[in-house]
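Why this split exists: single-chain examples teach little about how molecules sit against one another. For that reason, every record in the complexes split bundles all components of an assembly together and asks for one structure covering all of them. Below is a record exactly as it appears in the raw files.
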Amino acid sequence: MLNQIGNYSLYIALLSSILIIIQSPILLNRNNINVSGRIFSLISIQSLMIIISFIALIIAFIISDFSNETVYTNSHTSKPLFYKISGTWGNHEGSLLLWLLVLSIFLLIFTITSKNLSNKYRILTLFFQEIIIAGFLLFILFTSNPFMGLFPIPNEGTGLNPILQDPALAIHPPILYLGYVGTSIIFSSSLAALISGSVNKTWAKHIKNWVLVSWIFLSIGILLGSIWAYYELGWGGFWFWDPVENVSLMPWFCLTALFHTILILEKREMFHSWAVILSITTFSLSMSGTFLVRSGILNSIHTFANDPSRGVFILCFLFILITLSIFIYFFYQNKIKNNFTKTYIVSKETAVLVNNLFMMFFLSVVLIGTVYPIFLEVVNNDKISVGPPFYHKLIVPFLIPFLIFMAIGPNLNWIKDKINKINLQQLLFFILSIIISFIFLKRVGISYLFSLPLFIASIFLFLITIKDFSVKKTNLSQKISHFGFSLFILSVLVNGVLAKEYSSNMKVGDERKFLNKTIKFESLKVNESKNYQSLEANFKISDKNNSINLKPEVRVYDQPQTITSEADIKSTLYSDNFLVFNILKNDGFYNVRYQIKPFMIWIWISIILISFGGILSIVKKNG
Amino acid sequence: MKIKILVLTIFYLIGSFNLSYAANSEKVDQISKNLRCLICQGQSVYDSQSDFALSMKILIQNKIDEGKNDEQIYDFLKSKYGEWIVYDPEINKNTVLLWVLPLILFVFGGILILRKVSIK
């Protein structure tokens, strides 16, 4: 029953898509017709149908309707309700339906909020957006249908990968998708603006909100994924330069660059083409991200479900969209106003260009690092791995000038600024950062040449962004985001330099000395939970003044049978105490890994600050 | 001449960064962090608790005890398991583009900006 509802509503949604695509060119030639007529009702019907199908799938998961193949392969009656619901998008079919849901709802919002813009621009945006929606509908209906029936109906499902049964990961995909899918509106609207010749101030003003919304969701989505990896994967790291992580970072770089460019376009009517190119690139990266993750050609810890034949479909679809947009770009680019006003080297405009240059560089490092191994394997069958050392070597040297530019750039004036304004105050801060870095590195005993400039640059940025709160010229949301970024870099650095780690094989009752602390393996007990058994250890970490207890677990899930290690983490403002243990083969011994991670919590807080700046900017403008 | 100095400084910086990257951690940890656990999905030998990773760590320890230096150990592992095992691809004719392409793009973009803006 639910399967039929889901299926039919998806077909109706596809039909609406086709109707809109056919009708748009006709409506385009009649200037007096308002979009909010027939097309609007079609879009509403489409969204409604997709919402119905999504709800049908959620209900199927909640009531464990095993006549549905997706539910059967991804759920189990013994699973807690929360994870039954989140299981809806914890698999390939369901997550694509979620993509589609967000696509159509975003389009509806776009249609409603763009009423005061030109008809041609709106219809064209709808047209491109509907092509994307139709593509996804076809993809879902013919390669990844979440409403496949099963007969005879099994009594029990096979369960959700336990590693995914986690609160952060339950909301991580929807948030990330909101970011990804937001870029589709940017893509469609930039093509529409290009064709209708309206790449200008008004467009910039309108699309800025969409850029911000996507950017905020993407930032928070990445944050959630990263927090999850930190406590669930059990390594104590938060970023592994894993291909699937990289794929979410790439559109982020692009969006950040785009946002800064859009600001210039809005204020100074410059960089029109560049803004369009960035819009197209951002969406292409989001789509390729989906392709890379879903096709299974990446070797990644995060690859949970994949199927190569689906990859081919997304690849073709992506190819068509990119070709289409390149064609449109070259065909219509002469419509772009080219009133290139003179830009002086010391100006805000140049500062944004420099920001873009660095963003594009970071993007290219991550992009090339992620896809190069795939190409190399195809071309001459050589398998290479590109991991953290590669990214660190290429990104870190460029981070130093980037941070310094970021400190100076926002304080520059539009059009032309005086060079001697790089003034005494800044010089003073710079000298201060040199002193602080020098003392700090001396105290922690690190004397390598390269860490010094990195610390100087990041402390310099940190001080400048704090000082900037007293300057009236720039707006508050920018100050918060930039301060958040400087805090982020600084926390990552301090965390990297001061993190301490101890690993040993222990059995119950053992005691180990580490730094000035004693780690005692006090006890071990077995707990029964609804859908897993757990082995809970109790460790006491004590130094002279105080002691804490950490209780990591090893869980044995029954459906499907999987063993996971759950780290126990005690966070304070200064540092995290992180402990994880694993079962070893020799009886009675457990591998114990204890880590002290200074300023860990500030990494999360700083990313929240960065996103908060964006939220504030939206609220302020509309409030 | 200027370019020569620039190139030398960059290489020097990258080199010294390698050193700092390797700081604080013990040799085995440091080497195993740069190795892919071949039977896992996207985990390093250091992070993995699989049999493969455990025996790998013992192997590295033995090599260190034999007095082998980092380079010799990496070379040994590469000859045994192939380039796939190291996370830090060396620069050779296969990987030169991987390392150089981002740098070329940066220089290209930089030139583009310098041509657009007027100095005075």
